[in-house]
Specification:
Structural class: alpha+beta
Radius of gyration: 24 Å
Distance between the termini: 57 Å
Strand order of the largest sheet: 2-1-6
Oligomer: single chain
Helix content: 10-25%
Low-confidence stretches: none
Shape: elongated
Largest sheet: 3 strands, antiparallel
Strand content: 15-25%
Length: 87
């Protein structure tokens, strides 16, 4: 499991740093209303918001390349309908 540091942004309107908190909505309090809730950033004017830290999430599936190819081949296979004689 990946452990990420909280998102930090700076509002240019009031020059205040806003840091995300788990389960809470955090706002700068000025007229731009830069708000962070979870991993969502919102503001009246997003051009006034500067991202202070960015990150990329790379998830590993835990499967080898051979296993992934087998899964792809399995998903492409066709289902055949079987006819049964009813007596």
């Amino acid at each position: 499991m990946l452990k990420m540091e909280p998102i930090k942004v700076r509002c240019r309107a009031c020059n205040k740093e806003v840091r995300a908190r788990a389960g809470k909505s955090v706002c700068c309090g000025c007229s731009n209303m830069t708000t962070i809730k979870g991993d969502v950033i919102s503001a009246v004017d997003l051009s006034q918001v500067i991202m202070l830290n960015t990150y990329s999430v790379k998830e590993e599936s835990g499967l080898s390349n051979e296993q992934l190819e087998w899964q792809k081949a399995r998903s492409r296979r066709k289902i055949t309908k079987m006819d049964f004689e009813i007596r």
